[in-house]
Amino acid sequence: MRPTTPQRxxxxxxxxxxxxxxGVDHLELRGFGLEWQGMIPDYYTxxxxxxxFKNLDIEDFAGRGPHDETPAIVIRDGQDATVKNSxxxxxxxxxxxxxxxxxxx
Length: 105
Fold this sequence. Notes:
Number of strands: 8
Shape: globular
Structural class: mainly beta
Radius of gyration: 13 Å
Strand content: over 45%
Number of helices: 0
Helix content: under 10%
Largest sheet: 6 strands, parallel
Oligomer: single chain
Distance between the termini: 29 Å
Low-confidence stretches: none
């Protein structure tokens, strides 16, 4: 975890999620709830954002993306992803790009 404000900490703009994971294997997120408050910077592009992964399992998630047009979950460039028993509190639930054996139930 790292802070996102104040700007004086040298935080750079990068496409982020409230929860971001890169290069993980066997990541399981269960019962994850996400709420956003206040003005959300444009560089937040998803609620949960995972890329370059193997074996991702998200279950019982409830939340939304940071903006009306962004999904709650963004999954990219990995293999074996499952999203089940999850729901968006607004907007789209999930976007998967370049995922081998990915499914949302």
